[in-house]
Structure formats: C-alpha cells, structure tokens
Amino acid sequence: MDDPALELPVGVPDRTAVITFLGVLQIVLGVLAVMMVPMQVASQAMVAHKGLAPLGMLIFSAIAGAGLYLLAATLLIWTGVGLLRGRRWASAVSLVVSWLWLMTGLVSILMVIVSIPAVISTPMPDGKPMPPHVATVLVLVSLGITTVMFLVLPGVLVFFHSRPAVRANFEHLDKGPCWTDSCPLPVLGYVFLMAIGVLGLLVSLPVAVLPLWGRLLTGWPARGVAALLLAGQVWLTLGVFRLKRYAWWAALAWHPFWIFSCAATLWIIEMKELYGALGYAGKHLDALEPVESVWGVYPWMLVLVGVLLIGYQIWMLKYFKPEVSAE
User: Fold this and answer.
1) Contact 163/132 with Cβ under 8 angstroms?
2) Is 215 helix (H, G, I), strand (E, B) or coil?
3) What is the average per-residue pLDDT within 238-254?
C-alpha cells in the first residue's frame, strides 16, 4: 500500500493482509501465464510433428495462443500491482475479470463433459482403441485441471474481491476519482466481454473464415465483413461503457443476432466443411473424426449462451438512463 499507516474508520476491519494476498496471487498467476507461452508453442510444434493439422493453422494457433497468454499475464500483473498499491480501479477490474473467468470456467467444464465421448473414442498412437483405464485417467485429469484453473482460482478471487470489508478498505485507501467510477461493475463486466468480442473479430481477419446464417464467408469477403463488424463492435463497446441508451438497444439486437447466426451455421454445415475452409484436408480431417461425434452439441451451447446473454442485457437496462435533451 502507498500509506499503510492510514487508520481505517471505526467499524471497518483491516483487510490489508487479504489485499496483499490477492495482489501477490494475481502477480504469480500472471507470471505463470507468461510461462505458458513456450508450452503453447511447444504443443503446436508437437501437433505439427505428428502431421495432425495444417502448418499454417498451427502457426496461427501458436501466435494467437501466445498472445492470449501474454494478454492475460499483462492484465493479472497490472491489476496485481494496482491491488498492492491500494487502487480502487484494480479491485473493480479484478472482480469483473474474475467473474468472467468463472463464467468461462462453467462453460469449459460443460465442454469437457460434452467432449468425453470424443476423448474415449480417440485411438492410441498405434491405432488401437484407447484402454478404459487410460480414458478414465484422461477424463479425470482434464476435469481436475479445468476445475482448478477455471472454477477454484476465479472463485477464490470473486469471493475475496466481493467482500464488503475489502471494498471498504479500498475506498479508504483510494479516495480520489477513479476511471471505473463512471461505469457500474455489472456494465463494466459486459464491456470487458464486448472487448473479448473485439479480439475475436481481430483474429478472424487473418483466418478469413466467417460464419453467417448457415453459410461460410471466406477470403476477402470474410475479411471485409469482419472489418465492418469490428468497427461496429468498438463503437458499441465505447457506447455501453458510457452508459448510452442507444448502445444498449444496439447491443441487445446485435449480440444475440450474431450468436444465433453462428449457431445456425453450425447446425446447417458439416464439421468437415468448416475445417476444410480453415485449410484442413485429407489426413488432417481424418484426425478430427472423434470431434464429429459431439458436433451437434455446440450449436445448442451457443443458443444457451445467447438466451442467458439476452437475460443479462435486459437486467442491465436499469443502469442506462434515458438521455434528457437540453432545452
């Protein structure tokens, strides 16, 4: 903290130790995220060595994965340092990111469960069926790692960051104006979610494959549409952060429209058509056969996400006050 000698108001318990723990934990998690970068590159190199995917897609996946880990590391270390300095914005951002991390974890757990049949049906390197005990170990390890990384860790952060005593300590330590004050935390969480959408559209530019209501746009048409969507997403993100009512209405129409468009595309097209557009062919497509058994589940998961998102957007309307025109 910048001034640990500050005395807290009567009735507010000292949570300096908790705040220090949270700051150190997030910095350590950020360092671990940096350490995941070479592992991400090595995993893609291993897949390339086995010839399970096109080299171009593997290079792109390695770069995108490394970038994602570096972004997560930057966010964790940045907020961790802010927590150690007693900054309110760091507590607000940490709570929002932890909730998004936890929600992602719930979806990840569901994905692991849904993918169990594909894991069990994946043959061993020698081509023989996977023994039951090996399949059991793989499933348990996958569930264990996903539970710790995406449920336990963010759950701990959400629990401590949401404690009233912790918030009171930050309000006492950092009394000045803060950039997060102008945006309620539920809306700030949605803004971060929209920012993830911006990153997703950026990724789609070099990939040049875009789902659109039952068909796949490829090449420059896909890049052109993605660029327009990217500009619109940035505009909407800024509008929602500024609590503009027009941005809320636009987001309510746009985001479910896009999610349901992706779901419809996955329902209509075959899995091999999508991966073929991504450059997979021959043995690369054959290596994806276990995934095909659970392909039909993914559109339903998107529909569920879309419905939940609509509900959250409607609940969030109370923060967007109608603009009063100046007379």
Assistant:
1) no
2) strand
3) 92
Residue 226 burial by Cβ neighbours in a 10 Å radius (0-12, 13-18, 19+)? buried
Tell how strand 215-218 and strand 209-212 pair up.
antiparallel
- Rounded Cα distance between 280 and 9, Å, is 63
pLDDT in tens, 291-312: 666 777 788 888 888 899 999 9
- Residue whose C-alpha is closest to residue 306's, from 257, 237, 270, 249: 257
Tell me the per-residue pLDDT of 264-293, one tens digit each, with 9 for 90 and over.
988 888 877 777 777 776 666 666 666 666
Q: Looking at the chain, how many residues does it have?
A: 327
Measured N-to-C along each axis, helices 153-161 and 16-50 cross at an angle, to the nearest 10 degrees, of 160
Domain regions of the chain by residue span: 1-178, 182-327
Reply yes or no on whether the pLDDT at 243 is more than 90: yes
Which residue's structure tokens are 């096109």?
Answer: 54
Q: Which amino acid is at 139?
A: V
Count the neighbouring beta carbons within 10 Å of the beta carbon of residue 204. Answer: 20
Rounded CA-CA distance 39/274 in Å is 27
Contact yes or no for 321/308 (Cβ under 8 A): no
